[in-house]
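Running this now, will post back.
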Amino acid sequence: MIFSIPAMFKKNKLKKAYLVKKQGFSIMEVMLAAAVLTIGLVAVIALISSSIRNSANSRDQIIATDLMQEGLELVRNVRDNNQAQIFGGSLETGKVFEYFPNDNTACKIDKNFGYGIDKIDYDATDFSLKLNNNFYEHTSGTSTKFSRRIIIEDFNGTGRKITSIVTWNSTNPPILTTTCNIANKCVWAETILTDREI
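Update: finished.
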């Protein structure tokens, strides 16, 4: 194959022209790419931070719900322990609600309750819970954002209505459950305890 000299020069000129046009990005292209990348990173960071915040809120709500249920169970244990002592003959009064205050909206109880010795703590003013050896209690430990109020009311003269209210907003739980909701970082539950006979 024979090449003519002008054809070779044309090929070289085309190659050089192509190379000259492909020099790089303009400043506007770089700024646009940087803006798109920044917006993308900000969105990802906002999503991650929102996810972490929602996880922390969910964790606190689960802990508060468990503490609320624990409050009901601890009071139920006092009633059941009294019942067992009546049958065993060691609680001579024969009253299953022996260690219960009558109609009190300011009670507290935790794992340190001495069955057969203590009365449920009432007329309390500070309901904050502290973390001590992985247990929440009112007496000692590291302060937490959780507080628990137990409300004990007479029920038909033969039982007690127990309401357990827990907040996780570093305030004392309200007396009225109408102001207690998730938006206020508050949960509550109630149960009726009766003088059971076995």
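The chain is about 40% helix and 20% strand. More later if anyone needs it.
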